[in-house]
Amino acid sequence: MIVRKGNIVKVEGAVTVDNASVMTAEGNELLDEQCLIVDLAAVVDVDSSIVSMLLEWLRVANRHNCQLQIINQPESLKSLVQLYGVSEFIPSDETNRAKAEQCEA
């Protein structure tokens, strides 16, 4: 499930091949020209589909001139980001937290 409140987009539950395409489309609909923080604290299960979903969101956000900061990344996502070599596109929590604070200001 994906819920947007202000500039926070909360992703909850599992993000796997079973639901990633639906979640990708739902997330794309929420992206606009605002600086947004994607909070993954409530994500309970992931597979490689989450990497594809986040990369698509980042592409769409870029087209909308939207800054997207991804925080509270599960350890399994961090491992996948490293495995696929996409850390320049999906930076670490530490990098995104600093930028997320600017979004909240």
What would you say this structure looks like, in words?
The structure is a single chain. The protein is an alpha/beta fold and 105 residues long. The protein has a single domain, classed as 2-Layer Sandwich (Transcription Regulator spoIIAA), CATH 3.30.750. The chain has 4 helices and 4 strands. It has helices at residues 20-30, 49-63, 75-84, 93-104; strands at residues 2-5, 8-15, 36-46, 68-71. The protein has a 4-stranded mixed β-sheet with strand order 1-2-3-4. Helix 1 packs parallel to helix 2.
Give the structure's gist in a few sentences.
This protein is of the alpha/beta class. The protein is built from 4 helices and 4 strands, in the order E-E-H-E-H-E-H-H.
Strand element count: 4
General shape: globular
User: Structural class, please?
Assistant: alpha/beta
Kindly report how far apart the N and C termini lie.
Answer: 26 Å
Roughly how many Å is the radius of gyration?
12 Å
Mean pLDDT: 90
Write down the CATH class: Alpha Beta
Strand content: 25-35%
Poorly predicted residue ranges: none
- For this structure, the CATH topology is Transcription Regulator spoIIAA
Number of separate helices: 4
CATH superfamily: STAS domain
**Which strands sit side by side, in order, in the main sheet?**
1-2-3-4
Task: Summarize the helix and strand pattern as letters.
Answer: EEHEHEHH
Percent of residues in helices comes to: 40-55%
Architecture (CATH level 2) name: 2-Layer Sandwich
Largest sheet: 4 strands, mixed
Count of discrete structural domains: 1
